[in-house]
Amino acid sequence: MSDEPDAGTRKTGPGEPQKPLRRGWTTGACATAATKAALTALITGEFPDPVGIILPKGEVPFFPLALEGLGEGYAMAAIVKDAGDDPDVTHGATIISTVFPAEPGSGIIFAAGEGVGTVTLPGLPIQPGEAAINPVPRAMMCAICEEICAEYDLPADLVITISVPDGEEIAKKTWNPRLGIVGGISILGTTGIVHPFSCSSWIHSIHSGIDVARAANLTHVLGATGSTSEDAAQKIYNLPEIALLDMGDFAGGLLKYLRVHPIEKLTIAGGFAKLTKLAQGALDLHSSRSQIDMQFLWAEAEKLGADAAIKERILSANTAQEALEMTQGIGIDLARPIAERARTTALGVLRGAPVEVEVIVTDRKGNILARV
Question: Is S-adenosyl-L-methionine set as a keyword in this record (predicted)?
């Protein structure tokens, strides 16, 4: 497999230059390569190793086989997923493709093996009852199978079963349970490439969650920055699990999608610091991509009657939490204007879409500080 560097760097020792972050490969790319190897062996009796595939943007990575098997009427090949330097929960997972001949005229059929999920709810790009193998990986596998079969003048009538040992356990760390995907992970990827610390997969999951909620005709969804604020809001609403959108730091990804695919009511719940960033107008709330502006917090405190005696203390505070505690100590409720300003930011992104917005600010223990 290629270790070509992608954009971005990683820290090394003191005084050493930063090294480029290494990109990796999606589960869809691994499944496609494993399928190519298995089908080739089914026809010729020989496994290509390493096996190369052409990705949607023209790259040609090569994958070493981790497992191979050839029996009466089937062939199996496996590839261990390398996610590069991305903290991907499927890094190191074994992606297995087993290929069987199918009935004449049946075309290519995909099946979920051990550790690959099955879709159970509408709203996703794959219909309920189907293996959780997304459209782009399906298209990649179909294209390579049709190409190989044409080369040997054979019909592309095949059953492709994708399996991932331990996939059911891995899936517990993903959105799949909330999206109604049961039994394992999804086979994903649009470009075939995993970019280190990419936001795209998380935002894609937020979009999928909204699609599932809309398909279920839900009228109220909850986007929280973390589990503490989600639990606090759930004590009020007790929404169904598919209404819980794991927004995390990606407020913009949530709001922009709801602008085009509205749901009647959105509750945004989060800690004081994260929602201060949203109040400032930031849509990506991660600590590396947006910062707390202490001048902003002082301006809000001043509007509520804080005098100059506390100004320098707020401006020199190390964290938003420290500023919050200072103002609480003099009887100023800074959480409410932050909730109001965060709601204003959200409504601005929605641009008049028919979505009612509520904002809940919590402390670190999950106590509600403000609800607007």
Answer: yes
- Taken in order of first residue, the domains within the chain and their CATH numbers are 5-194 (3.30.2110.10), 200-371 (no CATH)
Packing angle of the helix pair 272-280, 320-329 (nearest 10 deg): 100
**3-state SS, one letter per residue, for 117-129:** CEECCCCCCCCCC
CA distance 371 to 166: 41
3-state secondary structure of 320: helix
Kindly state the tokens that stand for 210. 């909204």
Q: In b/e form, how buried is each residue of 38-53, taking b as 16+ CB within 10 angstroms?
A: bbbbbeeeebbeebeb
Contact 43, 154 (CB under 8 A): yes
Q: What CA–CA distance (Å, rounded) separates 336 from 294?
A: 17
Q: pLDDT tens digits, residue range 331-354? A: 999 999 999 999 999 999 999 999
Q: Largest Cα–Cα distance in the chain?
A: 85
- DSSP β-ladder status, 74-80 and 94-101: antiparallel
Minimal CA–CA distance to 154: which of 29, 32, 40? 40
CA 304 to chain centre: 39
Beta bridge partners of 9: 20
Beta strands 74-80 and 67-71 are antiparallel
How far apart, in whole angstroms, are the C-alpha atoms of residue 332 and residue 196?
A: 42
